[in-house]
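User: I'm putting together a teaching handout on how sequence relates to shape, and I'd like one worked example. Could you take Ubiquinol oxidase subunit 2 from Buttiauxella agrestis ATCC 33320, show the sequence you're using, and then write out its predicted structure as tokens right after it?

Assistant: Happy to. First the sequence, then the structure tokens directly below it.
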Amino acid sequence: MAIGFAWKYRASNKNAKYSPNWSHSNKVEAVVWTIPILIVIFLAVLTWKTTHALEPSKPLVHDAKPVTIEVIAMDWKWFFIYPEQGIATVNEIAFPANTPVEFKITSNSVMNSFFIPRLGSQIYAMAGMQTKLHLIADESGTYDGISSNYSGKGFSGMKFKAIATPDMDTFNQWVAKAKQSPEVMNDMATYEKLAQPSEYNKVEYFSAVKPDLFKDVINKFMGHGKSMDMTQPEGEHAAHEGMEGMDMSHAETSH
């Protein structure tokens, strides 16, 4: 417009129409409103689609069955439960490469954040609630995991190792090693002892774990004794009949 007006109304152009009382044009109004509206609609559709495509709680599309790991943030360590394998660990996890991993996450203390930077986005861990994260490692190797939310004096040492094994057989060998541990997590008393604040904790393995321990940890922070699950179709507000913890799930993430 700046170039066009300067050219049309230049001093040498004696044929330019002089309209001192001009104040409205339907054509101009149509252009100045239609173009911005189309831009807003385009950006809105693009944002909606990409936001839902990257939803961390959305399961990854993959032929392999996901490995489920329940994560509990403690002061100042990470406690991991493998419900299908019946084992638990402190500050170390393992899973096969090229296999989806479903993380169910909560906190035994203050709000925290579970993060494996090289694999995907962080997700918050909150007491009395369950969040979800889906990740996959495209290559085998050892990945560093951290807490990315300040949680007290031991925050800096709240780190763990995530081992992506080359195949399922190697993962099963890791599980077998954990099952050889003399330590077990069979009751809440043992759990509460582990949950006591401590810093720079070494890796620990538990060959057995109390069934539904993850749910019990969530429920102990709920005054009515039962947690709420907010994973439901859009528009619904009733608690999920499974009562698996208030689910603040977030986005599909892959490496």
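A couple of points you could highlight for students: The domain at 67-247 is CATH 2.60.40.420 (Immunoglobulin-like). Residues 230-255 have pLDDT under 50 and may be disordered.
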